[in-house]
Records
---
Amino acid sequence: MSLPGIVPLAQAKGLKTQVYEALRELIGHMDIYGSRDPIRLDERALGEQLGVSRTPVREALSRLEQEGIVENIARRGAFVVRKSKDEILDIVDVWAALESMAARLATSRASDEEISRLRKNYSTFDGDGARAHIDEYSDTNIEFHQTIIRLGHSELITQMADQLFFHMRAIRASTIKDRDRVAQSVMDHSRIIEAIEERDAYRAEQLVRDHALELAKHIDRYVDYLD
């Protein structure tokens, strides 16, 4: 099994951490819900591609299992965890609460420079441009929501959101092309940026929460490929 995006690691003191971080990053960019087929992680192949033995790979997979990202199944191997539809809806609801609070906090905690960067980095697409470059916009969309979390400058919110990130990233990537959600996403982002620029805590919180909950509604109504 050859997986893109993996390069051999330097033999360093923090090798275990390097392997863990490399595998976490790899899984974070997988299209977890793009197929109904389970995603198996081959220890031997991963070790060969990273340039390490199977031992640190096995240890990294065990750590990822503790985080609920990987599941080790006896006599079958390690698989990326896929959530059910109900579980995904719960994740989106919790994310809505975390990100909306981060947006509220951002209106008072983010610096003018940070807010200016938000505008500069995430106002490059209009509806037509986003449709024409959907894969690029999908990545930008995901980065936008991560940035909102960071702008809240709450370590606890950031940690909690990180635990949900894999599945939020995957479900956003798999649904952004549905029913012209791109155009609505671009408009929503523009309004969110405007509210944060104006340091309007109530509006920023409401817009971010509603944006996430619209994703939940879409999943509930239209997504039929979750277990």
---
Amino acid sequence: MWILILSRKASIYSTRRLTEAAVARGHQVSVVDPLEFSLVASRGRPSLFHRGLEVGGYDLVIPRIGASITSYGLAVVRQFDMLGIPVLNTAVAIARSRDKLRAMQLLTRKDLDIPITVCTKTASHIDAALALVGGPPAIVKLHQGTQGIGVMLAETRQAVESTLEAFWTLGQDIILQEFIAESRGKDVRAIVVGKRVVAAMRRRAQKGEFRSNLHRGAEPEAIPLSELDPRYAKAAVEACKVMALEVAGVDMLETRGGPKILEINSSPGLEGIERATGQNVAGAVIRHAERYVKRRLEKGTDTGIENERTRRRRHKIT
């Protein structure tokens, strides 16, 4: 296969590992910054251009869309999907997971457990919202955000009010979420590829920090798959199914009642999980990509305009 990885830099650990894993299995790989594409919409013929040349002919696209370029990155992913080129995590699925409120809505519809989450836009509703989430303290989150960015712990009612009003003034949508004290600053991240968990770790926040993101200095601890509680594996797989994600990192809080899904990341970083567990997660992604493309070809699900004639006409980026 010829695989296109959409990523800001080829040197990023996750991108480099995916490239290495693909090449090791005999595939050709292009790595291109999504912002370098120009999108063209015309009657019956969507297309993409890179430095003046029309792009196409790829067998698979793997999006690694950073939060800072979500909007344009998703437009690029959507354009490839319209061309009928298989995309490992579609634009719709990525957008669902990036919108924290939408993700919570979809998960609760399928009866998956999450921290109690409230969205309000009116200051007079703050007391009622706090009562619903059992706070303060309570978690305040931006609708969009990754790596713990836009996530705050508000210790008092006054802190909640001032934080909400500050973000509302800036035009930001905010959600209020139950603070799960028993998790004690730790969570479980499970990497789901296809319909199975391929690696898992527990992340413990630094002292004085409630966010357990590795970018925030959290300490990772490998969880052997044989020791992963089946409830957590099942919840992670079901969450990805709800989001229609082929590859994702699912973060879950540990509680006496079982896992509470905290977040679903459609472009999970591979460095922390691979180093903590020793698992070849990148290899698992590429092997699943091969099966994914094969299934689509067998089912004839590529209904876009990309075909052998147009594949020959368009160029691949090397």
